[in-house]
Amino acid sequence: MKYDIIIIGGGPAGMIAAGRAGELGSRVLLIEKNRKLGAKLLITGKGRCNITNKVNNTREFVSEFGRNGKFIFSSLFKFGIEDAIDFFNNHGIKTKVERGNRVFPLSDKSIDVLNVLVNYMKDSKVEIRKNSQVKDFIIKDNNIQKVKLTNGKEIEGNKFILCTGGKSCPTTGSSGDGYDWLSRLGHTVTKLYPSLTPIILKNKIIKELEGLSLKNVKITAYKNNKVIDSKFGEAIFTSDGMSGPIILELSRKLTKVSPENVQIKIDFKPALDYQKLDKRIQRDFMQGNNKMFKNSLEKLLPQKLIPVIIRLSEIDIDKKVNLITHEERMRLLGLIKEFKLELKELSGYNKAIVTLGGAKLNEIDPKTMKSKLVDNLYLAGEILDLDGPTGGYNLQVCWSTGYVAGDSAGKD
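Structure (tokenized):
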């Protein structure tokens, strides 16, 4: 049997591409190597699935992808943020907008998002083959003729859409196979890096701070005392380093930087400059002049952080606060405003959310997602050299490019 369109990869881009192509009347086959579809989709947003980001306008969305962002203008025009929200609303998922314009299903369940996509494909009469792994393509006259599976079977098709994702979260099946196939097909694959990943730190005190959540802090990364990037928001200490929204954002800039001499500085009170914080501390000390230093920071810092700050300040824990010297207070200020940590490395692909790098964009038509090098090949999703911040940006790229690829292949 010869299919009109064969789609490789049952992630968000592949499923919406398959559903759209089938909706247009094409005979579609989706091939997925895992036992289940959407393995990575199910774990996004900590299992809640951050569907998209409802930013003010398309230009603002695109700007978050840096110099490559202009590539997605066309796909966002055809299937943009509101289109994605409407798609899920119209298929029975009510949505809500949370802090940072992040859009989630009202149920907070990623399985609901997956079920919509599965039902969309079912309604579009898409044939799905799970537990089926593509080994290679059979090509003739710059056209893909067939896909060859690892079990030796060959499947013939007229058009092919590659939605195999990147290398992040390999336990979900994202092993980077698609990059190897693209290279053999003549496409350029830019250098790959794990992105949006936790960081691992050298400091032994991390063990004491494990589990401490930080809110409204500013974290800055330095390389040889030069600022790499700075972010404000939430973070958390892990058993070997840090994670959380602003750490993942910082990792986008750190991923291409050698970790040697990279320092992380945390400002626990970014709303107060040194002078205002000093006045605040002096006021607290004056109001509790009979207090010992070890009992004086409860209103200023999280409980789990206090013993570490006290120890590093080298101020006698039993010293009365009204006896603390100016020099000692300056040391305390420095620890609160510039808590210094040393980077060891990034966590890598196992914990990365997305892959930085991928299929070179100037070899793909942004209006159709069609390859400029292989006549009947389309690409969509994370396999592209597009990586955005956390907050629904990367899933929106999957919806937009996947929909356009399925639409274009179904109409051509």
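The mean pLDDT is 94. The longest helix spans residues 393-411.
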